[in-house]
Design brief:
Blueprint lengths: L2 H10 L4 H14 L5 H12 L1 H31 L5 H6 L9 H9 L5 H8 L6 H27 L3 H52 L1
Helix pairs in contact: 2-3, 2-4, 3-4, 3-8, 4-7, 4-8, 6-8, 8-9
Length: 210
């Protein structure tokens, strides 16, 4: 992923450059041939802050939706071709979880496998509309940081870039240190909610019988 070669390629598309970049973002979510951090940064570098953020958000949203719908359409056997068994088992609780906020937090945490989560959530009960809202807003903060970084380098604003980079490193470091704890907390949270739901269901059934 040489930046200059990619920039030259997108420029060669002329008016279709925007579509080419959006397609690149879609493909990196669905097939993951390149890290999303690279494409987000390049979007800011080539198109600037506003347009870069807009195009990246469209591409990531469409890519997330495509992965989610592929999973929903073809089921678990298809997903297992893209997602390791250990990862599926690790996030299996999401398939039974109805709490949107918990899923949003997973998308928000740097380092969480957001593209893989799109496939996993396609196997669960989350509606398409709610999934798109969560995945788009959850990815947004990271997309902003990457786009700003690319834009600062484009405009030779190295001081701003160094500040942004320092903030990003601190956030990523904290996330990596506490990522497992966060995910363990989310699983416990899910178990408690499931127990609460079962208890409420039993109470309703008991009331219905009486």
């Amino acid at each position: 992923m040489d930046r200059e070669r990619l920039e030259t390629f997108l420029d060669s598309l002329g008016p279709l450059s925007f579509l080419g970049f959006i397609l690149l973002q879609i493909v990196q979510v669905v097939a993951a041939p390149v890290p999303g951090e690279v494409t987000g940064f390049i979007g800011g570098f080539i198109y600037g802050k506003g347009l870069g953020l807009f195009l990246s958000t469209i591409g990531l949203t469409l890519g997330s939706w495509a992965a989610y719908m592929l999973s929903k359409t073809f089921g678990r056997p298809f997903v297992e071709k893209f997602v390791k068994k250990e990862t599926l088992e690790k996030y299996d609780y999401l398939l039974h979880h109805k709490g949107a906020f918990l899923v949003f937090l997973l998308f928000l945490i740097p380092g969480s496998p957001k593209d893989i989560l799109c496939y996993i959530l396609g196997l669960g009960t989350l509606s398409t509309r709610l999934f798109l809202i969560i995945s788009t807003t959850g990815r947004f903060a990271g997309t902003v940081l990457l786009t700003l970084g690319g834009s600062y380098i484009r405009n030779h604003q190295y001081y701003r870039f160094s500040i942004l980079l320092t903030i990003a490193i601190i956030i990523i470091f904290i996330s990596l240190v506490y990522k497992e704890r966060f995910e363990r907390l989310f699983r416990i949270w899910h178990i408690k909610e499931r127990k609460k739901e079962r208890k409420e269901r039993k109470e309703r059934e008991k009331l219905n019988r009486t």
